[in-house]
């Protein structure tokens, strides 16, 4: 019944109120919805008014509790504990009290082992708060003031929840004379008794903090008398009121009344008993109501048909991994026998007669479960239950076949009738209601648990055929349900179980194909799982097109669907190595670890947080663990129950991996940052290494320091235990490793060989080898006993930050600040496969999963990434392109060619129309190419390098002209020709400019000096008389190009270094770009600023250039974008050009102004259509040389501007997510308004002409 509107004057929540004559009345439905959304109360834990004491029984105890409730004074304990053994009737009394005091009942919460994962102490407090708010408007208003606090919504700290959600709002209750009762039933079923577990914290809260409540608030608790309960009762004798079930008077008499009522009743199903027989039953009960109740319903075991039906139903019920309703049990049983839902089932005539054993027997849709955990134990124990013993294996057989058949019967395309693929699941109106409407409980149960039943049955003839039918025809729809219900992580477990099951069948072609099919599903889920959870339609729209060609999944799945995106070029034949990118941290991720079962990940970041992730779906689990200065290291305990973190505040913290709460106090002792931590193999110790040059060993139970190990001359960077726990290895800034005896703390060995800091150490699984990574860019494998070097592994081009052995010890993975991961064979010491690329900044941490199939990495790019560690045979295709980042690009004067310079020390020239290389690479520089420029006639090219030289190249014969131009003492950052082609000017890291004679290579005059920092960019005026230079010293200077003298004073206008400068074609203006992310336009004659700074980029502006007609400006940025600006209005023209996946270093206009070329650290060169309305070419040669019709023309492409957002969605100009692009395709995908893409990693061209998307997405199901 809806609550009547209440009158309030609190304007803080005016949006919840309506004006009525002329008072405000609150909209109770809105507020209740808000409280439900914020507090997420547990369903089904409320009062059951049918579960009450029989009239005339339990009179004395009910009277005692009633008197306690009606006594309102400060001296009366706020909490009443009713304690007793299972089956003594505690819960029935609690429900009776709840029903009798319904007017005053604020909340009722029943803990249950069956629902232990959701009925936790923290969820109980949230549910109690919600119930109180719904019942009492005063408390509701108090809750509204705190439910928007993000800490309260995310925390599992019981003290914080108690204070904010219970005590605070309770104090808003305005009637101090009206009792308010809160009932907590079965407290003993709320979790483990272990110390520091949530159960202990809830007990402590009730004992220590109940007096914080107003005196009219009463908490009634029922519980078994277990050891922790006894301890607290004895410790706080005056804080609570206690009663014990075995001390209640008249118990046997009450049981006798109950038995007489049931067994002498003429309506009894079992016939009538005489009074003496009832007396015997009552005596046998020995104070346990449940015993008498059970005997009543299971009195006659001689009915063979009834007992057969009983066995079938009870085996199914007890075999279920979660409680099911009577209707669900029936449907699953009928499905197991290939019968229709309209047929009769033994469930129909067994369940209603088991009310003594089960709850929920009255209605078909109610959850059916044993009245107590002891009932299950009793029925599975033949020695105790005799005739009534249940064969649970039969139940698993019923449910294995039943769940598979239910899925085959009810799974189909678009389960929840989603209408628009542009909407993410969170944007779909009433999605939860759709899920409840279209996905029945038994179907969801089947989708999530069918494998658990299958693995418990023996192979039978029906198994293989039904598995083939399910996987080939229905597994896509099964994944659809898992995605909708956020259970996609289940897929990996299910397919592993099913795959092992299928392996045991006799070999045959059909079996082999099914086995391969099943093995590929986890790969599919690992790549697409998070996307499927985010947007169900894209299971089909985005998942199916990118399945590797030639795979079993591709052959089976795509034959049933049409109107999908198709490949013109670039469809890969192997599963992507990069499976998922997890984002959420706001600073560098410096440490990662897998849980022992491989289902979770933990990451630590300098943003001060520890995050736990679902390793299958990529979804975060719970809220970040906060309160830390900066996390340097994280580790899972061997049992997966705890996480430890070491941080910049010199401490180690141990966390409960389930609740996210800190276990005990931080471990203090180090005097500098804790850089590395590790659990011992038995989980009883933690070792920590610190910048204070010491290692400390801690006891994880007592949290006391066990020992301190000293000997390194500089800070410790890495620590690890040996597999047997007897030794510890440490790596230090002093370039050495040491091994230590864990027990004695003595040094066992010292390892010398690295030429710089040791950043990472790891023992091999057999303990015979140690691997170390170093700032000398190498990995060394050592003999763990002798300390001898077994091999030095060199391939990384920057600091090696992390090393880890595979579980077999056959492979080693290393991560580096060169942004890559590399794999090594530990026997041959050679590289395995290609480097894994994807991170856009240094890789800080790498680790294998326990099965060796995956690797996780954390990076300075703030992301966590999951990789496939199983290398696949693939056709090696070589693509032309730079092997490292592109630093500079330029158009030739005729617009037919483009040139690019790279960090790979080479220059390439490309055909602008086809993307084909024009000749081979131009090589001669000994270090990075930092800048290039064509001569005005296009016959020459000048390059500047970090090798401190310039070189001039003949573009026709592609050879060096003359000797290198030497004169700078540091790297050359910028070069350009004069308009007549006779001079070259260069800017350098040595803070100077040099003007050169382009004909003979001689320097003209002395270097031009004046800047106080590196010169990042130089530009000739169109008449060749002036030079503009931009510098990291935040200034721009103008120079006389003939005399070399400075013109006027330096120009300042940027808040940070100036990165680029360029004159307008008429010479009246110049534009500058800066590290402050802005652009400025200047008057070239007066040096005055024209207008305000141009904002738009979210990163350093790296390059700026005017269009040939002077009407536009192009800019490149570290935010991975190119922007085009109106040079007159200084406004952005259209959308940014997105496509590059790393910093864009250089941009240039084509001579006709219709295209822009850009070069990026992602190793690619891209040409863009300036108009931004789509591609301006109809065909494109493939990189192999043969022509291919390009589908992305102005007339046929469905939209003219696209970009890939940070989550990987290819979006159209209206921001609609068209299709999700897997990580390995993002840097090679060509889309509007790109005209051309040149990439060493390949090229991907998609055809979207027949692509069904948006509101027509359902058309992909062409079979129906």
From TrEMBL:
WD repeats (start-end): 582-623, 631-665, 667-708, 709-750, 751-792, 793-834, 836-877, 879-920, 922-963, 965-1006, 1008-1049, 1051-1092, 1094-1135, 1137-1171
**Record SUPFAM superfamilies:** P-loop containing nucleoside triphosphate hydrolases, WD40 repeat-like
Q: Name one Pfam family in it.
A: WD40
The alphabetical list of record keywords is: Repeat, WD repeat
Asked if the keyword Repeat belongs to this entry, the reply reads yes
Would the keyword Nucleotide-binding turn up in this protein's UniProt record? Answer: no
Please report the stretch or stretches of sequence annotated as the NACHT domain.
78-224
Q: Which PANTHER family match?
A: SUPERNUMERARY LIMBS, ISOFORM B-RELATED
Which protein, by its recorded name, is this?
A: WD40 repeat-like protein
Organism per entry: Lentinula aciculospora
């Amino acid at each position: 019944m809806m609550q009547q509107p209440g009158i309030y004057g609190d304007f803080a929540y005016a949006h919840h109120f309506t004006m009525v004559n002329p008072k405000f009345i609150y909209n109770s439905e809105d507020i209740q919805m808000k409280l439900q959304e914020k507090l997420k109360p547990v369903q089904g834990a409320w009062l059951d008014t049918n579960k009450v004491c029989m009239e005339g029984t339990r009179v004395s105890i009910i009277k005692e509790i009633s008197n306690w409730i009606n006594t309102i004074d400060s001296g009366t304990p706020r909490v009443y504990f009713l304690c007793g053994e299972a089956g003594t009737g505690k819960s029935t009394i609690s429900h009776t009290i709840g029903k009798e005091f319904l007017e005053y009942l604020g909340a009722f919460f029943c803990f249950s082992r069956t629902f232990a994962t959701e009925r936790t102490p923290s969820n109980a407090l949230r549910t109690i708060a919600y119930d109180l708010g719904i019942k009492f408007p005063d408390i509701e208003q108090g809750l509204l003031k705190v439910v928007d606090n993000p800490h309260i919504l995310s925390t599992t700290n019981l003290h914080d929840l108690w204070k904010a959600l219970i005590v605070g709002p309770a104090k808003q209750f305005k009637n101090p004379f009206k009792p308010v009762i809160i009932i907590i039933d079965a407290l003993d079923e709320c979790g483990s008794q272990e110390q520091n577990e949530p159960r202990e914290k809830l007990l402590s809260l009730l004992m220590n903090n109940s007096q914080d409540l107003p005196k009219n608030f009463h908490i009634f608790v029922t519980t078994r008398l277990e050891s922790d309960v006894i301890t607290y009762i004895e410790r706080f004798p005056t804080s609570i009121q206690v009663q014990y079930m075995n001390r209640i008077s008249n118990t046997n008499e009450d049981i006798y009344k109950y038995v007489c009522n049931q067994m002498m009743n003429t309506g009894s199903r079992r016939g009538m008993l005489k009074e003496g027989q009832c007396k015997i039953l009552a005596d046998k009960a020995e104070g346990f109501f449940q015993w008498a109740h059970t005997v009543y319903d299971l009195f006659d075991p001689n009915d063979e048909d009834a007992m057969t039906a009983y066995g079938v139903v009870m085996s199914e019920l007890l075999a279920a991994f979660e409680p099911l309703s009577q209707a669900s049990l029936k449907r699953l049983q009928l499905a197991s026998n290939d019968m229709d839902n309209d047929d009769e089932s033994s469930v129909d005539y067994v369940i209603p007669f088991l009310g003594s054993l089960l709850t929920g027997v009255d209605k078909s849709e109610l959850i059916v479960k044993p009245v107590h955990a002891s009932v299950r134990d009793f029925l599975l124990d033949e020695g105790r239950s005799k005739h009534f013993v249940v064969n649970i294996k039969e139940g698993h057989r019923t449910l294995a076949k039943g769940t598979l058949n239910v899925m085959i019967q009810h799974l189909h395309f678009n389960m929840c009738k989603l209408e628009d693929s542009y909407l993410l699941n969170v944007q779909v109106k009433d999605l939860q209601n759709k899920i409840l409407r279209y996905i029945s409980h038994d179907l969801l149960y089947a989708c999530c648990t069918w494998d658990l039943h299958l693995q418990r049955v023996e192979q039978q003839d029906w198994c293989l055929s039904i598995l083939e039918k399910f996987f080939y025809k229905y597994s896509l729809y099964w994944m659809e349900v898992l995605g909708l219900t956020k259970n996609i992580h289940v897929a990996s477990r299910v397919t592993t179980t099913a795959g092992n099951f299928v392996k045991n069948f006799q070999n045959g072609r059909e079996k082999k194909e099914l086995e391969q099919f099943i093995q590929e599903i986890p790969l599919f889920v690992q790549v697409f799982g998070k996307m499927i959870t985010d947007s169900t339609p894209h299971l089909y729209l985005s998942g199916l097109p990118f399945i590797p060609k030639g795979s079993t999944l591709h052959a089976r799945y795509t034959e049933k669907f049409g109107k999908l995106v198709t490949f013109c070029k670039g469809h890969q034949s192997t599963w992507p190595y990069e499976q998922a990118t997890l984002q959420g941290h706001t600073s560098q991720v410096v440490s990662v670890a897998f849980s022992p079962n491989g289902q979770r990940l933990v990451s630590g970041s300098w943003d001060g947080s520890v995050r736990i992730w679902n390793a299958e779906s990529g979804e975060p689990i719970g809220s970040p663990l906060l309160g830390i200065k900066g996390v340097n290291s994280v580790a899972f305990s061997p049992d997966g129950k705890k996480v430890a973190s070491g941080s910049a505040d010199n401490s180690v913290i141990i966390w409960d991996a389930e609740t996210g709460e800190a276990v005990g106090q931080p471990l203090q002792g180090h005097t500098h940052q804790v850089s590395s931590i590790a659990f011992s193999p038995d989980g009883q110790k933690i070792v920590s290494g610190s910048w204070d040059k010491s290692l400390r060993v801690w006891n994880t139970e007592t949290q006391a320091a066990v020992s301190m190990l000293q000997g390194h001359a500089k800070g410790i960077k890495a620590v690890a235990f040996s597999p047997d726990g007897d030794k510890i290895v440490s790596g230090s800034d002093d370039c050495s490793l040491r091994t230590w005896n864990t027990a004695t703390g003595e040094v066992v060995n010292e390892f010398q060989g690295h030429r710089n800091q040791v950043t990472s150490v790891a023992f091999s699984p057999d303990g015979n080898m140690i691997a170390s990574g170093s700032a000398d860019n190498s990995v060394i494998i050592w003999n763990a006993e002798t300390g001898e070097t077994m091999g030095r592994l060199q391939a990384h081009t920057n600091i090696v930050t992390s090393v880890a052995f595979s579980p077999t010890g056959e492979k080693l993975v290393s991560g580096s600040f060169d942004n890559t991961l590399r794999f090594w064979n530990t026997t041959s010491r050679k590289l395995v496969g290609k480097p894994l690329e994807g991170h856009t900044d240094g890789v800080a941490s790498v680790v294998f999963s326990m099965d060796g199939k995956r690797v996780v990495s954390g990076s300075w790019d703030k992301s966590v990434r999951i990789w496939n560690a199983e290398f696949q045979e693939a056709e090696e295709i070589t693509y032309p392109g730079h092997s490292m980042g592109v630093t500079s690009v330029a158009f030739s004067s005729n617009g037919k060619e483009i040139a690019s310079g790279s960090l790979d020390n080479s220059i390439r020239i490309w055909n602008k129309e086809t993307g084909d290389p024009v000749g081979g690479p131009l090589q001669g520089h000994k270090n990075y190419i930092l800048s290039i420029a064509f001569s005005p006639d296009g016959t020459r090219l000048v390059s500047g390098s970090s090798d401190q030289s310039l070189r001039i190249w003949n573009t026709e014969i592609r050879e060096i002209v003359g000797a290198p131009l030497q004169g700078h003492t540091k790297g050359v950052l910028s070069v350009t020709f004069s308009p007549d082609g006779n001079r070259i000017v260069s800017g350098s890291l040595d803070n100077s400019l040099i003007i050169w004679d382009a004909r003979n290579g001689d320097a003209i005059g002395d270097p031009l000096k004046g800047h106080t920092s590196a010169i990042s960019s130089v530009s000739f005026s169109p008449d060749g008389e002036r030079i503009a230079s931009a510098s990291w010293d935040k200034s721009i200077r103008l120079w006389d190009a003939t005399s070399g003298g400075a013109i006027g004073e330096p120009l300042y206008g940027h808040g940070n270094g100036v990165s680029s400068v360029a004159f307008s074609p008429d010479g009246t203006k110049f534009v500058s770009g800066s590290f402050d992310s802005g652009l400025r336009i200047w008057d070239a004659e007066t040096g005055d600023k024209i207008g305000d700074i141009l904002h738009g980029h979210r990163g350093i502006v790296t390059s700026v250039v005017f269009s040939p007609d002077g009407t536009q400006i192009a800019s490149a940025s570290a935010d991975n974008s190119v922007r085009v600006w109106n040079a007159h209005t200084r406004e952005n023209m259209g959308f940014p050009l997105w496509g590059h996946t790393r910093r864009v270093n250089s941009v240039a206009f084509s001579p006709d102004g219709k295209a822009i070329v850009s070069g990026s650290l992602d190793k690619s060169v891209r040409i863009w259509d300036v108009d931004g309305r789509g591609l301006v070419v109809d065909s494109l040669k493939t990189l192999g040389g043969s022509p291919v019709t390009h589908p992305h023309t102005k007339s046929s492409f469905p939209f003219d501007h696209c970009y890939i957002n940070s989550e990987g969605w290819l979006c159209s100009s209206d921001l609609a997510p068209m299709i999700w692009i897997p990580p390995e395709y993002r840097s090679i995908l060509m889309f509007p308004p790109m005209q051309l893409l040149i990439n060493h990693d390949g090229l991907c061209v998609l055809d979207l002409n027949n692509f069904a998307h948006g509101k027509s997405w359902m058309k992909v199901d062409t079979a129906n």
